[in-house]
Amino acid sequence: MHSRRGKDNAQTLFGLEQIPSVPQIRNILDPIEAKSLFGVFERVYRALHDQGYLKSYQCLGGHLLVTLDGTQYFSSQKIGCQQCSTRTHRNGRVNHFHRAILPVIVAPGQTQVIALAPEFIRPQDGTDKQDCEVAAAKRWLQAHAKQFARQPITLLGDDLYSHQPMGQQCLDLGLNFIFTALPQSHPVLYERLHVLEVLGALQILEIRQDLKGTPTLYHYRYTNLVPIRDTQPALLVNWCELRVTDERTGQVLYHNAFITHHRLNDETVVQVVAVGRSRWKTENENHNVLKTKGYHLEHNFGHGQEHLAACLLTLNLLAFLFHTVLQLVDPSYQQIRQQRGTRKGFF
Questions:
Q1: How far apart are the first and last CA of the chain?
Q2: CA-to-CA distance for 55 and 235, rounded, in angstroms?
Q3: Which sequence spans correspond to the domains of the chain?
Q4: Comparing C-alpha atoms, which of 86, 63, 71 is closest to residue 158?
């Protein structure tokens, strides 16, 4: 357009006399903190909520499901900055890396996830300890829980989150939770569950279904109001377990257990477990898509010395969010995506 008309859209629409080079764009973005972009995530969430697009994501009597899960998006032994975490290997080499929690709204049966503002796992002012995923998750809750004031929320997370401080913080902020709970990390809880099992006090529900031609047994066990630890005061949680078995061969197809604050009975336990199992969507429909389907999350678009890596990650997440919104609300986008088939084809 510039060669044909002497002007282009960068000049006429945006007032840019000269498009900056890639290094200059990086220089401009490096001092900008990623949190200055976080308001866009909240505005998009509010618009989707107010216009009814999130109703199909509601479960458990109107709750939206938000998964918390960390992922690494940069790693190098040569490049580092003050925002990097570090890991020293046995050979003495130091690895610099960036990690972040990428919360998303998910639902069983929904292939689209809705990105929320991230929380970065990085050195914190006033502490000598390395930052960790759980500490970052707590910061995210404190910063963003208020945006869900009008909407019941259930947090989903793996075994890393299923301890008393995290569960209590969720309840204090008016949120529910469904966290994976493994025996090896909850010895006290499972000792009490064993006593209940011996006494015949665990509730059992069995459902038989035909799964792609295979007779399948869904075996649920559950109980309510079990203390999560010995130390008082102990948070009382509701526990449930699902074991899925191929009845022809006896092979266990799936086995997992969860703790929650949702009350469990024969009706709700099936819903709670289905919701707990949907946590995998944060891997398949979020991390995996961002890393392998055209967003190149782990590519080093620019590291910088201050905030560049986090700023570029946030812009990437916003692109992912905008594509999801278009998939939900825009018929033209839906038609093009259906015609092209894959995200890469669309890009």
A1: 22
A2: 31
A3: 33-346
A4: 71
- Assess contact for 152 and 64: CB atoms under 8 A: yes
The answer to whether residue 288 scores a pLDDT higher than 80 is: yes
pLDDT band, residue 213 (cuts 50/70/90): confident
Yes or no: say if 210 and 181 are a contact pair by the CB < 8 Å rule. Answer: no
Which alpha helices (DSSP H) does the chain contain, by range? 2-5, 9-12, 22-29, 38-50, 133-144, 164-172, 187-198, 268-277, 281, 288-292, 308-329, 331-340, 343-346
Cβ–Cβ < 8 Å for 41, 115: yes
Q: Which CATH number fits domain 33-346: 3.30.200.20, 3.30.70.1290, 3.40.250.10, 3.90.350.10?
A: 3.90.350.10
The residue to which tokens 């084809």 are assigned: 345
Q: 7 has which bridge partners?
A: none
Burial grade of 246 (CB within 10 A; 0-12, 13-18, 19 or more): middle
Kindly report, residue by residue over 334-345, the tens digit of the pLDDT.
999 999 988 888
Indicate whether this model's pTM tops 0.90: yes
